[in-house]
């Protein structure tokens, strides 16, 4: 029973790492080059195989009704953390970004 519990705890993170390994590496590289300047919202987007788009920003953004265009609402750029779309929440690390994106895939 203990072995099954350990496997059930280890398999989802391992599968998520394997599935998103290229995006995670790309996010880490992008995060390392961020300047986080005031009044300058930086972003990174990826397109899933089914055509949906996922994005991460350095400031909070709002969207048009069809989610076709992101509009930076003038919110201050955070010194750390990432605004993840979807779902439109703040997280602390690229690993957290991938964890949220995995829920939407």
Could you please describe the fold and organization of this structure?
With 105 residues, this protein is an alpha+beta fold. It has one domain. It is built from 3 helices and 6 strands. It has helices at 2-19, 21-33, 94-104; strands at residues 43-47, 53-57, 61-63, 70-72, 82-85, 89-91. Helix 2 packs across helix 3 (94-104). The longest helix is centred in the N-terminal third of the chain and has 18 residues, at 2-19. The chain is elongated and about 55 Å long. It starts with a helix and ends with a helix. The model has no long low-confidence stretch (mean pLDDT 77).
Order of helices and strands: HHEEEEEEH
**Number of DSSP E strands:** 6
Low-confidence segments, ≥5 residues, pLDDT <50?
none
Query: Counting H and I runs of at least 4 residues, what is the number of helices?
Result: 3
Mean pLDDT: 77
Number of domains: 1
Shape: elongated
Largest sheet, spatial ordering of strands? 1-2-5-6
Question: Radius of gyration from the CA trace?
Answer: 16 Å
Report the span from N to C terminus. Answer: 30 Å
Overall helicity: 40-55%
Structural class: alpha+beta
% residues in beta strands: 15-25%
Please outline the major beta sheet.
4 strands, antiparallel
Short description:
The chain is of the alpha+beta class and 105 residues long. It has one domain.
Write the layout of secondary structure elements.
Blueprint: H1 2-19, H2 21-33, E1 43-47, E2 53-57, E3 61-63, E4 70-72, E5 82-85, E6 89-91, H3 94-104
Antiparallel strand pairs: 1-2, 2-5, 3-4, 5-6
């Amino acid at each position: 029973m203990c072995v099954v519990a350990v496997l059930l705890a280890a398999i989802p993170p391992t599968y998520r790492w394997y599935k998103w390994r290229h995006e995670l590496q790309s996010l880490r590289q992008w995060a390392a080059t961020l300047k986080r300047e005031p009044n300058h919202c930086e972003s990174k987007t990826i397109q899933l195989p089914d055509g949906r788009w996922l994005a991460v920003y350095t400031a909070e953004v709002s969207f048009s009704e069809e989610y076709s265009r992101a509009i930076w609402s003038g919110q201050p750029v955070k010194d750390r953390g990432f605004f993840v779309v979807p779902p439109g929440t703040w997280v602390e690390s690229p690993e957290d970004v991938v964890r949220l994106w995995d829920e939407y895939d």
